[in-house]
């Protein structure tokens, strides 16, 4: 075994193919609120160190500053095309009335102040926040040639409204969404929506360049630091993984972890160097024998395997591990073999009567056999993570062999737990270890 004694550990590097560029990445996602049952379109902005969640809102871009997206817009009805908008929702559905369509080149579109997703608050000064769909329709139809509408952009909307998702501006879709359980009021408000004539400048109340103008923008709602963070690719309520989803986020987290290890090892003694650390899931059995997966943070530090409920950030946190185990008294086993990318096969590994404990419904697992015979089972979400943990345990145990010189280690032979005495022969050339059976 050719290793230098008491030298800092080699950090477990990620394959170069998994590294991501440092530039910013963005993508659209759908955020679901389990408490309200509402959904909203969000944008994720990923940098090396931060994941920012952005939500759409309507902001004033000219005509002064405003801290609210509440707007009052005056529309003049056209002889052909009406107001050029459609609405859905209402108090009978326990949701506000919202603008579901804005028809291109019609008066509502030219006003530059109304957007798909705007909730109606007032019509001609009458509060309609608790009005039914039909009541709002009747107010708009009987409003005469001009109508004053006060609206506010609704970030979250129930999924059954089926508002267009991911649209940065007003919708130009002129077809009715027949699949929606809510009636689209476009035909009743605008007459025959299949024939439109653009309004003349004199009949429109669209703002001039010096007047107030609004636009939809993505605004930062929440910033999540990625250092020591955890992201799950599992779908809620089951053990199915989302394919390749969130892998860039996971890669950035692991890269930051490696940097953190390097910085910590600069100020640590050779006997207290961190070899590897990161999030895993501990696989437990509940009262009904159902599997429970509890997130744990494992650290291979010096001669010890430390298990934390949350990552150690400050100096005092290192003394608050849930459990600590000497590396001389543990045995690591991976229960899935990496054949190729996205191609895994079950390894036929047995450990005597402990076989039942090693089974797990998740794909990428490893177990740690402790000195008193107890087995702790863990799982990870990426094949690259399983490889990193396997290499990390090998490196940490090898370094501990060099530090100790002579020690008895646990192993298994034909399904039975055995011991392996090991000694460091000082008479052999440097950096060589001789094991004695």
From TrEMBL:
One of its GO terms (molecular function) is structural molecule activity. CDD domains: PDZ_syntrophin-like. Keywords: Actin-binding, Cytoplasm, Cytoskeleton. Residues 166-181 have a biased composition (Low complexity). Residues 72-155 form the PDZ domain. GO terms for cellular component: cytoskeleton; syntrophin complex. Its main location: cytoplasm. Residues 165-184 are annotated as: Disordered. It is found in: Cytoplasm, Cytoskeleton. InterPro entries: PDZ, PDZ_sf, Syntrophin. PANTHER family: GAMMA-2-SYNTROPHIN (PTHR10554:SF3), SYNTROPHIN (PTHR10554). Belongs to the syntrophin family. This is PDZ domain-containing protein. It comes from Albula goreensis.
């Amino acid at each position: 075994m050719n290793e230098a004694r008491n030298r800092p550990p080699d950090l477990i590097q990620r394959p170069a193919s998994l590294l991501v560029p440092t530039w910013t990445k963005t993508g659209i996602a759908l955020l679901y609120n389990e408490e309200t049952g509402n959904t909203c379109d969000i944008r994720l902005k990923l940098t090396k160190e931060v994941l920012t969640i952005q939500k759409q809102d309507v902001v004033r871009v000219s005509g002064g500053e405003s801290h609210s997206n509440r707007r009052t817009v005056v529309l003049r009805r056209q002889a052909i095309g009406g107001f050029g908008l459609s609405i859905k929702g209402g108090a009978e559905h326990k949701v506000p009335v919202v603008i579901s369509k804005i028809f291109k080149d019609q008066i509502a579109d030219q006003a530059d102040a109304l957007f798909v997703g705007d909730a109606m608050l007032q019509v001609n000064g009458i509060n309609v926040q608790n009005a039914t769909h039909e009541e709002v329709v009747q107010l708009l139809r009987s409003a005469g040639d001009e109508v004053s509408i006060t609206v506010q952009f609704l970030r979250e909307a129930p999924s059954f409204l089926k508002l267009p998702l991911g649209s940065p501006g007003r919708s130009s879709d002129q077809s009715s969404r027949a699949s929606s359980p809510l009636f689209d009021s476009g035909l009743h408000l605008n007459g025959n929506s299949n024939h439109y004539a653009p309004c003349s400048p004199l009949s429109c109340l669209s703002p001039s360049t010096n007047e107030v103008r609004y636009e939809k923008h993505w605004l930062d709602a929440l910033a999540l630091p990625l250092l020591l963070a955890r992201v799950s690719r599992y779908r809620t309520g089951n053990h199915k993984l989302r394919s390749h989803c969130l892998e860039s986020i996971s890669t950035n987290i692991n890269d930051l972890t490696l940097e953190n290890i390097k910085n910590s090892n600069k100020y640590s003694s050779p006997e207290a160097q961190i070899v590897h650390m990161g999030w895993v899931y501990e696989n437990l059995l509940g009262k009904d024998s159902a599997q429970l997966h509890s997130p744990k943070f494992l650290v291979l530090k010096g001669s010890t395997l430390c298990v934390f409920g949350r990552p150690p950030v400050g100096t005092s946190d290192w003394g608050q591990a849930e459990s600590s185990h000497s590396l001389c008294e543990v045995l690591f086993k991976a229960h899935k073999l990496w054949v190729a990318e996205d191609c895994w096969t079950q390894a036929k590994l047995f450990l005597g009567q402990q076989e039942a404990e090693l089974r797990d419904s998740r794909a990428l697992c490893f177990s740690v056999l402790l000195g008193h015979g107890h087995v702790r089972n863990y799982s990870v979400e990426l094949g690259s993570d399983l490889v990193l943990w396997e290499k990390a345990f090998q490196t940490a145990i090898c370094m501990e062999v060099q530090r100790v010189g002579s020690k008895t280690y646990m192993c298994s032979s034909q399904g039975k737990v055995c011991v392996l005495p090991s000694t460091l022969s000082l008479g052999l050339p440097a950096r060589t270890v001789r094991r004695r059976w």
